[in-house]
Amino acid sequence: MNHRKWLRLTLVFILTTLLLDACSFSVEVIPTAASFPPPASLTPVSPTAIQTSVPPTDIPAPATPTLIQITAGTIGWLEIFMTVQHGDVLRSLAFTPDNTVLASAGGNTEDFSIRLWDVASGESLGTLDGHTDIVWSVAFSPDGQMLASVSRDATARVWDWRNGTLVKSLDFPGDAVRVSFSPDGRILAVGGVDEPFNQIQNAAVWTYSVDSWRSLIKFPEYLDIGAMAYSPDGRFLVGGGTSRNVQVWRTGDGTSIFTLNHSHQVLDIAISPDGSTAAAATCGISLNDECTEGSVWLWNLSNGRLIQRLADFPDVVESVEFSMDGLSLIAASRDGTLRVYSINGPTDYQRVFEATPHGESGVMALSPDGRLLATGGADGQIHIWKIVYRP
Hints:
Elements: H1 3-23, E1 78-85, E2 90-95, E3 101-106, E4 114-118, E5 124-128, E6 135-140, E7 147-151, E8 155-160, E9 165-171, E10 176-181, E11 187-193, E12 202-209, E13 215-222, E14 225-230, E15 236-241, E16 245-250, E17 256-261, E18 266-271, E19 277-287, E20 290-300, E21 305-313, E22 317-322, E23 328-333, E24 338-345, E25 348-355, E26 363-366, E27 373-376, E28 381-387
Antiparallel strand pairs: 1-28, 2-3, 3-4, 4-5, 6-7, 7-8, 8-9, 10-11, 11-12, 12-13, 14-15, 15-16, 16-17, 18-19, 19-20, 20-21, 22-23, 23-24, 24-25, 26-27, 27-28
């Protein structure tokens, strides 16, 4: 074989080999973890080295699952998970900032104790005793250290509720009806009757420095203070209601910048998380001094104008709350009707949930993180609600 022929044969062989290799080329599929189980003997070197969806068996699961925030998107799963009995007529509810304790207060002709409840178990944590007449309202301080209460006995009391001791007692000319701490916890506001023997019956909101209990600004109103709330930034105090008027005061100097006029008394006020809207719980239509249709009036706090009315409640609306994300409004009427509205725009409120638990349940409180709701009323029963997800 000559040299030229040998070269040709060698080139043919090389080209044939390359063609055969090209025809047999394939992509390797790397199996995922879900494609096959890991070896039985495989154990992680450290707890953080390998993450799995199943917790180690030596770490017990939490006693209660993580709570889901109450929003328009989760409201379909809202359920009562616990009911406790306050005793006499229930008039006010409040959660501690960490949601672990619920305070309830009220009374009618006797039993004016403030009751404390463990939210996880429903067990009683004891009572705070000292008021001698109906307790109208209770509120926890933002740091959770104190509980304030106001009563028809014309006093406001501030408690170290964990130890059951009285921190401060404040005296007033008449009924003390509403109480609230400022968002920063530095000021206590108490609303009530200022001149009980005056024909006009002047009312007021008194404010005090929590550090020294020194009296600060007095905000004047008429008749009584049926509703009161601070704006989230603390710049405004909204209060009044018994006179059918609700004042929007500037907290810095006590100036009333708007007067919100209603056709009936206002029993509760809530302000949206962004501070733009006030919701007033009231009656829309009455006959012979009986409310035949409850409603919620929505106000623009930048200009004091009425946005709209949410009507058709079977009885007067006693409580109202905004969800933490500001996209839902929760309202409770005296007959026990609980409604939730989805807020899709400044004037677009759509009803997305309604329930009527047994008994009168117009008193309501939403936990500070928006994950628990408590309702109750004249029969003394307290219902605690949460989102129960069932996929």
